[in-house]
């Protein structure tokens, strides 16, 4: 997935972000590293996307969550608001251009612009059908899935210099096996899980929150000198190219 750190590029009234608020300094609370930022996270009503949306909001960002189904968006917004987080939601199927345009316009309307774009499920011919998939389907369709994911490594390398002049950093997160509904066929069955663990340096599967912290870091001022990189969060599992 992509993490684009913009500088309020789409705002009607650009303001420079990046510094911590005086209020948090005066209150002697640790400054929240994404305070004042607006983050747009696609495919964020479940799994890794939801964990990212929650973490960015916990770190101070205003977050626009989205996915294909209105009821999922409504449930997520309600859940995160109950946790005291500053979120709004809208429906967006990442494969539909009109939805993507609406997504950005909604962020501009509700929050005044976008500083951070986390594109979860950006290009994925496999993703839509996977929840009904058996282990056999996974095996058969893993080829196209891997090709689509590998393309993101190259796209990250190309987009980073292309967007440099706009002050946009582009980085990529490459998760290993993370416990979500999407990957359940790999961990619900004990023998599949044992097999998967053989390839890992840390002998368990990852949790969505372990991806979220890495994304928050990449979007934050702490990563201000990092662009065009792919961060692997895979418990020491070997990369296959
Ligand atoms: N879990 C892993 O082990 C793992 C490992 C490596 C990479 N990944 C990648 O991480 C991403 C997220 O996977 P996950 O494991 O977190 O999945 P997940 O738990 O099944 O969550 C999927 C989320 O994406 C939304 N979604 C699905 N298709 C969409 C579309 N076309 N447009 C917009 N939203 C869509 C779903 O909501 P709606 O149904 O409402 O749309 C849901 O919120 C995927 O790109 C996956 O390939 C996952």
Automatic annotation (TrEMBL):
<dbReference type="Pfam" id="PF13561">
    <property type="entry name" value="adh_short_C2"/>
</dbReference>
<keyword id="KW-0560">Oxidoreductase</keyword>
<dbReference type="InterPro" id="IPR036291">
    <property type="entry name" value="NAD(P)-bd_dom_sf"/>
</dbReference>
<dbReference type="Pfam" id="PF00106">
    <property type="entry name" value="adh_short"/>
</dbReference>
<dbReference type="InterPro" id="IPR002347">
    <property type="entry name" value="SDR_fam"/>
</dbReference>
<dbReference type="InterPro" id="IPR020904">
    <property type="entry name" value="Sc_DH/Rdtase_CS"/>
</dbReference>
<dbReference type="GO" id="GO:0004090">
    <property type="term" value="F:carbonyl reductase (NADPH) activity"/>
</dbReference>
<comment type="similarity">
    <text>Belongs to the short-chain dehydrogenases/reductases (SDR) family.</text>
</comment>
<protein>
    <recommendedName>
        <fullName>Dehydrogenase/reductase SDR family member 4</fullName>
    </recommendedName>
</protein>
């Amino acid at each position: 997935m992509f993490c684009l750190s913009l500088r309020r590029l789409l705002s009607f009234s650009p303001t420079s972000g990046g510094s911590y608020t005086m209020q948090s300094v005066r209150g002697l609370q640790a400054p929240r590293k994404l305070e004042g930022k607006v983050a747009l996270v696609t495919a964020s009503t479940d799994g890794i996307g939801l964990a990212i949306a929650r973490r960015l909001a916990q770190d101070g960002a205003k977050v626009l969550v989205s996915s294909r189904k209105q009821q999922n968006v409504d449930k997520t917004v309600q859940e995160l608001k109950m946790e005291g987080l500053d979120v709004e939601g809208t429906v967006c199927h990442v494969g539909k251009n009109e939805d993507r345009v609406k997504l950005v316009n909604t962020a501009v309307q509700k929050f005044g612009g976008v500083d951070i774009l986390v594109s979860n499920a950006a290009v994925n011919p496999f993703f839509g059908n996977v929840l009904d998939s058996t282990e056999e389907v996974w095996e058969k369709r893993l080829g196209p899935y891997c090709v689509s994911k590998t393309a993101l490594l190259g796209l990250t390398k190309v987009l980073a210099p292309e967007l440099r002049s706009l002050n946009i950093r582009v980085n990529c997160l490459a998760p290993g096996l993370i416990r979500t509904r999407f990957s359940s066929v790999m961990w619900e069955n004990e023998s599949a899980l044992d097999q998967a663990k053989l390839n890992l340096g840390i002998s368990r599967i990852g949790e969505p929150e372990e991806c979220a912290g890495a994304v928050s870091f990449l979007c934050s001022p702490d990563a201000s000198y990092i662009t065009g990189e792919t961060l692997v969060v895979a418990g020491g599992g070997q990369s296959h190219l």
